[in-house]
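FAQ: What does the model actually see?

It sees only this:
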Amino acid sequence: MSDYAIKALTPETWPDFAGLVERNTGLFSGCWCVWFHHGVTDGRGEGEPNPQFKKRMVEAGIAHAALVYDGPDAVAWAEYGTPSELPNVHHRKQYDADAAAAGCAPPDYRITCINVAKSHRGKGLGRLALRGALDLIAQAGGGVVEGYPHDLSVRDPAKKMSASWLYNLTRHSYEEAGFTYVRPKGQGNCVMSKVVAPAG
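And it is asked to produce this:
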């Protein structure tokens, strides 16, 4: 993995992120990884296109990600942020109800999306992006981090899942990164947690 570099998503690295997304046709139906931002205080402008909304969140310091570089090109990323920056999660009604029933406080950070360019899949770059996000969180002071990976152990093994739909890696990948299983979420995902110490 020494051939790859990690950089934070900032206004300066925005063109690299935009290039990555554009090369992958905007991701899932052109989402530009904005779905998890829905509900942020700044709000989304009426009719504001996904790329402009995402760029505005980056410029405002609301959108964060670890970008993985192969030479000059960004080829993978892991989106992370506070619950106020990423208020939207899949299976939100169940997530809120289960967290309240268990008396769980909101995490300090969420990791909501990890994706690798089609040209670079199968090289472990999703896991590298996850580690990059954890390092950036440590540099920001650390805290409790939640992730919501796919739990393949509860899926029908006869129904193969395309790698293109693994938008947040797998439970096994999170376990390798030191996360602990907390509870199920939806029909095939789960909540996992890790305490990240401050850097230094």
